[in-house]
Design goal:
Blueprint lengths: L17 H17 L2 H10 L4 H10 L17 H12 L8 H15 L2 H13 L4 E4 L15 E5 L2 E12 L6 E7 L8 E7 L5 E6 L10 E12 L11 H37 L1 E2 L2 E2 L4 H29 L5 H25 L10 H9 L9 H9 L3
Parallel strand pairs: 1-4
Antiparallel strand pairs: 2-3, 3-7, 4-5, 6-7, 8-9
Helix pairs in contact: 1-4, 4-7, 5-6, 5-7, 7-8, 7-9, 7-10, 8-9, 9-10, 9-11
Length: about 400
Amino acid sequence: MKVSSMTLPPSAAEFTDEDLSMFRESVARFLDTHAPPEKLSQWSTDKVVERSLWREAGAFGMLGVTVPAEYGGLGGNFRHERVIIEEMGARGLEGWGVAVHNMIAAPYLVAYATEAQKQSWLPGIVSGDTVLAIAMTEPSGGSDLANLRTRARLDGDEWVIDGQKTFISNGQTADLVIVACRTGEAGARGVSLIAVPGNAEGFERGRNLDKIGRDAQDTSELFFSGVRVPKDNLLGGVPGHGFRQMMQMLPQERLVIAAMGLAMLERALTLTIDYARERTAFGGTLMDLQNTQFTLADIKTQVTVGRAFVDQCSDKLVAGALDAVTASMAKLWITEAEIAGISRCLQLFGGYGYMNEYPIAQLFRDSRIDTIHGGASEVMKLIIARSL
């Protein structure tokens, strides 16, 4: 479905220039053609998006949009990624792991890979031949990235990796996984990031995890048993810099989650307004009731405030000035508003909101992860509190 401009607040002027408008129109056409509702339904059943769509998206130009042009990318910025987030959000496509590939994993390679690594990896990332994942979370700890147990030891010219990761998006599909490992002393200073090919000997994918939402997203356990990769697959060239690299990139990841959450809340608002105008109740429509009007007015206000905040954060990110505290505030406020707002929207659907065939039910399930992944709301509060 397309979001009505009558329903939602306009973006800031810098996000609606001619270049971005043309890009938005082309992305919308691509998604309408290649990711229609019937395909989304099939991917949800299969619990994975078909690989052919990744290559089609690469040929179109939707992958690696911030990868520099010399490696085949668009050479765009986060404003282009926002377009993709919003157009996918308007169609309920959060389960396709483009955000992880484009906006969370690829920036590590652009920022920290050597020239040889970039030449080797980035063209495939742009074409869709190489799907990315990033493996941080372990069964023994979620947001505690300084105390990783997956280890990598240097043996001659190779790293030997042993350990386990869980909740890894694109886990079944990924051809290259950026793995957070312990290469040295305990604590943050001993953490490194190492790129592991999906076909490496000793690397195994566990089950495709059964989640309460985002059914089309392949989310997996990953196992590393004596996995050997070249010494040069270490990102940054020097061991022990991984925690700092993650801290530098996590503000963007958290802004991505905030932007996705905002897009989902906008879709829920649009769906609910349309339903309330059509649903008869007590001699009129549901929209005629003051409770409905007040509920939707409140959610629209939150969407408008959230859009302004995400626009501001996007400006800061493009300028290289988005700090961890501001990104944490954006993720905290927007995702909490998202799950609360979508729940209120579902309530207005009554019994129909409880039926999986209604998109609002899917939104309700899909949204629940957003206050957890990328750093739980409690972790965001801790980061913010430390700045007081």
